[in-house]
Amino acid sequence: MSARDRILSRLRERAAPAPTQFTELDYSVMHRPLDAAVRKTRFIESLRAARAEVIETTEATWTDALAKVLDSREITALGLGEIHPWAQAARRDLQDGRRRLVSFASVKGREAFERLEAGLTSSCGAIAETGSVCLWPDADEPRSLSLIPPVHIVVVDERHIYSSFFELQSAQSWHKGLPSNALLISGPSKTADIEQTLVFGAHGPKALVVLLITRSD
Amino acid sequence: MSVKTFTPAAFHHQSAQALSNPQLRHNFRGAMDGLMAKRLGSFDSWDIEALRDLGQGIRQKALRHLPDLLEQLEASCQRNGITVHWAESADDAGRVITELCKARGAQSVIKGKSMVSEEVELNARLAEAGIEALESDLGEYIVQMADETPSHIIMPAIHKNTADISTLMHQRTGTRETNDAEELTHAARAQLRDRFQTADVGISGVNFAVAETGTLCLVENEGNGRLTTTVPPVHIAITGIEKVVAEFKDVPPLYALLTRSAIGQNVTTYFNMISGPWRGQEVDGPEEVHLVLVDNGRSRMYQDEEYAETLQCIRCGACMNHCPVYTRVGGHTYGTTYPGPIGKILMPHLLGLNTTKNLPTASSLCGACGEVCPVRIPIPKLLVRLRNEAVGEGKGNIEGAGSARRPMEAMGWKLFSWLARHPRCWRIGVRVVQACRSAVPKRVAPWTDNRVRPTPAATSLKQQLAQRRRS
């Protein structure tokens, strides 16, 4: 018998409890809906409390906002996708030669650690109550793009802010299957392992910039 | 590698040493006070009792169906391209992981935080095979540098202050000495950056393993967990068989409970959900993902429905943060991988009561651990049961039951029990004790070490009441 079978058979040795003991679980405590307006403010407040930079912008002007962020942080090499609509818009509007736009797929290994000063990604949703951005990395915007460069810039559409993680995973039917890697990101990387002193910039990005696309309708 | 040796058998000696170390007590007191206040604040907008009910329900449901869920988890993981391995003991776990590393010709391993890897002493086992394992969580990096083990399951280096860490990092890595935690953190970041790139294998723990979707969830703030599971070509996740949950919708409630209970945060910086190696056209992520499911005594614990409640634990550490004993003696004193209240019920099951019989007595039974436990493990009740089984006649679903039994003490209680049921003899006994009350010696160690000499009263309560009735 394999280790697997021995472990499982030991677990099955336990006499099963009477089935009447089982009652359906009550998940109502997780239903915490917020109004759209509250969702936006809560999202911004929570992220700022976690030391993220949040810039409210619009679909028409967001690449200007991005250019300002890059200029103010003196970023000359930006990693980004090629296919995602946000990445295409950025590539179209940032063609002024002031910075290199690097497709992440083309820089591998050590280069990725050394060459990129910032990574731009899209998001697949956001969470108001915890100030979290949800990422589903893929071939165009790989896992490392939001991890290795010291600055992570992410575009979030106001319409995609959910009240809670519970609401987000339920609305997007996560139970049906997930990508190889899904992430919730709620600020720049941090630690308090040295005498409880909160320090930002542990091993992940030292800064998180959220470009929030607001909608007037 | 020599790790400072604390043992559960030497608990009394170790606690006396810890209590006489004012710096250590100061470090723990300060940290625990802060954590308690932050935890309370973080549940402000929640119906905390309803959330704890749900957390308990989710964990109990998972344990009730544990063998079925483990099979489902295995199938879901395999579908996602994750290879599942089973380890009955710490030795098995070490062997499985060493072989996986050898198969890749691995020389160096980078590790994210994992208490199960501490439990099976993975680093030492890898070292025996000539493979270097480097801890990347800042707290773990510090304790590894000091040849120590974690003193807290969430904050491994909580026993050290900034000056200790600065001196240590200066001696071991040449880091400039400073009292600035930020400078030290950034120095560690720079030191480890290269190691993530050159490591052949990344090893992490798992916070929740979802049977439904075959997803491994990792909770962290630093980003070292993401680097460990993203950059090296192989990712090995190690976890206990009890960490499985049935459905994805079980994850948000447990995550909400975990971060708040552990450190009073509404959320951690990263919640990393891994459902396999890179797929299709993806350009990064590991080529291989392995999940090692470790039993190491858990299936035995599972046989007893009351003790099995210990397996509900989500490893938040709130019981430690609120324990008056832990706060005073610190984590190393227990001499076990998992310290504090949960450790005092878990470790006797993993190691047997022979060496751990003192641990269940290291509690005032104040009940704080049970009150804060996010999944309502009845820790005080289980501590009392372990005490009973430690001094009992050897019955109980635990190895080493009866190992704390002392014949004289057992006889003393038998005599007391007999006397209490025979009133005439009891009365004679009371008179004899009263007649000899001045004969109690000045020193009755260990009682008189810290307390005044116990002397029986001149008149018993019953005698006083009788007198009052007469007058």
Automatic annotation (TrEMBL), chain A:
Pfam families: LUD_dom (PF02589). SUPFAM superfamilies: NagB/RpiA/CoA transferase-like. Residues 42-213 form the LUD domain. Gene3D superfamilies: NagB/RpiA/CoA transferase-like. It comes from the Bacteria. PANTHER family: LACTATE UTILIZATION PROTEIN C. This is Lactate utilization protein C.
TrEMBL record, chain B:
SUPFAM superfamilies: alpha-helical ferredoxin, NagB/RpiA/CoA transferase-like. It comes from Larsenimonas suaedae. Residues 447-471 are annotated as: Disordered. InterPro entries: 4Fe4S_Fe-S-bd, 4Fe4S_Fe_S_CS, FTHF_cligase-like_sf, Helical_ferredxn, LUD_dom, LutB/LldF, LutB_C, NagB/RpiA_transferase-like. Pfam families: Fer4_8, LUD_dom, LutB_C. This is LutB/LldF family L-lactate oxidation iron-sulfur protein. Keywords: 4Fe-4S, Electron transport, Iron, Iron-sulfur, Metal-binding, Repeat, Transport. Residues 304-333 form the 4Fe-4S ferredoxin-type domain.
